[in-house]
Amino acid sequence: MTSTSSARDIFVDGLRNAHAMEKQALSIMEPQLKRLQHYPEVSAMLEQHIRETEGQIDRLDTILGGLAEGSSTLKDMSLSFTGTMAAVTHSMASDEILKNSFANHAFENFEIAAYTSLITVAEECGATDALQLLRLSLDEERKMAESIEDSLPAVTRKFLQLSASSERADI
Ligand code: MG
Ligand code: FE
Q1: Ion ligand 2: protein residues whose beta carbon lies under 5 Å
Q2: How far is ligand 1, taken at its centre, from the CA of residue 53, in Å?
Q3: What is the CA(167)–ligand 1 centre distance, in A?
Q4: Quick one: angle between helices 7-35 and 71-80, nearest 10?
Q5: From the CA of 10, how far away is ligand 1's center (Å)?
Q6: pLDDT at 70
Q7: Would you say 47 and 147 are in contact if contact means Cβ atoms under 8 Å apart?
Q8: What does the radius of gyration of the chain's CA atoms come to, in whole angstroms?
Q9: pLDDT value of residue 71
């Protein structure tokens, strides 16, 4: 790379990428929630985190708005950011609930890494107002990752139980 970027440029890019990431999070969680039938504890977790994610998007909009960065570029970015890494669906899998849980855990950890890095950039470019908002989002991602991990034994036991019965076990 021959061109240089200021910490502030990198911060703005990071905010836009985080915005796209959160849109992707919604596009992963919302279809899962619609399909779920037999795992009310997972449904509740997803419902709560969808609401949190909407709040995270509002926070990023607030921060970007405060930097007076154009929102049209933002829109473009979030629309083009599809089909990557964790945007996998497992609706053809006989163990859909398990594969989705693994992928959701991976996605939350991706978000944890993204916010941890973004917070460091915010610190380095003196964006102190943004820090508190970004830390709230990071905290929500950590809690969600932990909840998913904590839920895995019970979800797996339920999957085994349902698989042994005539009930549908995968969703
Ligand atoms: Mg998020
Ligand atoms: Fe998240």
Answers
A1: 108, 111, 141
A2: 5
A3: 33
A4: 50
A5: 20
A6: 55
A7: no
A8: 18
A9: 54
Burial 39-71 (b: 16+ CB within 10 A, else e): beebbebbeebeebbeebbebbeebbeeeeeee
pTM: 0.88
CA distance 105 to 86: 10
In the reported structure, the alpha carbon of residue 70 is separated from the centroid of ligand 2 by a whole-number distance in angstroms of 25
| Residue 88 neighbours by CB under 8 Å, 6+ apart | 103
- pLDDT tens figures, 56-72: 999 999 999 998 765 55
CA of 164 to the centre of ligand 2 (A): 32
pLDDT value of position 92: 75
Query: pLDDT tens digits, residue range 93-108?
Result: 899 999 999 999 999 9
The single residue listed with the structure tokens 């978000």 is: 111
Angle between helices 40-66 and 7-35 (to 10 degrees): 150
Kindly give the residue spans of alpha helices, DSSP state H, lying in the chain: 7-35, 40-66, 71-80, 96-124, 128-164
Residue 144 CA, ligand 2 centroid: distance in Å: 6
Q: Which ligand is nearest to the CA of 18?
A: 1
145's tokens: 């990752």
Q: Among all ligands shown, which has an atom nearest to the Cα of 108?
A: 2
